[in-house]
């Protein structure tokens, strides 16, 4: 773990959705903290609540319970000036680099706009230099890329632009929601390496959201496994993945592609059904947290 103070923290945050007479507990007493220069991976299957956590951080949703803390202070009810600082400090990189860029605008526009909004003191040649710098950081050639439109770029280049746009406002926190899942396999590693480099060079705190435990292992020092809106196992990545204790973590690890496994294997869905049944029978109980080892915790399955 780390001794550095967290930049951003969720403290017992819950979010419930009501739809067509049913209730979905998308986040159940979720707590975690993001630290400078470290990546925390949030892993779980589709529907486990990962994007809800991201949206709560981006202030698209308000928590029903619990608090968000920014540099140790609750952000709910904070002054407009502090909210503005929060909005530039916390930036998002989306899953889909195709729809997150506006097809009618050039790349220059996409990078200039956030700078105008968040760094209005930067003008003229200084702004051009800052734009060139962020493009160079994401390993794109400014002279070639700036006049282009999104459709003239490859998927990997577009995702680099999305990262450059996030960096354009000097953020402290990056929320990356499945940033490589829509990219060709051949360019995924380049984007993950770029996120790793940015984290180290700029001391960014990164929340890396994924259903892919293998990439989480590659980029994240710390990991949380989310299941049905609840964080069920968390700690240092090597400890959690090297010694997984929760049945759901073990199940996710068993689903990492295995060349010896035959297509159409039903064990995964059978096991998931079994875990789900136990959870439903135990309703919304929050089991006591158990410490597995230094910086490794689980909320055991109810029995
Ligand atoms: N705005 C909403 N209204 C109603 N239900 C919602 C809303 N947003 C999310 N949910 C529900 O909350 C649960 C968690 O959804 P969420 O999108 O956070 O999961 P996820 O782990 O990010 O899934 P995916 O990987 O498919 O994006 C799901 O059951 C989803 O249907």
From TrEMBL:
SMART domains: AAA
An example Gene Ontology biological process: transmembrane transport
Domain ABC transporter: 8-253
Membrane topology: Peripheral membrane protein
Record-annotated membrane-spanning stretches: none
Keywords in alphabetical order: ATP-binding, Nucleotide-binding, Transport
InterPro entries recorded: AAA+_ATPase, ABC_transp_ATP-bind, ABC_transporter-like_ATP-bd, ABC_transporter-like_CS, Oligopep_ABC_C, P-loop_NTPase
Superkingdom in the source lineage: Bacteria
GO molecular function, one term: ATP binding
GO CC list: plasma membrane
Compartments, record wording: Cell inner membrane
Family: Belongs to the ABC transporter superfamily.
Protein name (database record): Dipeptide/oligopeptide/nickel ABC transporter ATP-binding protein
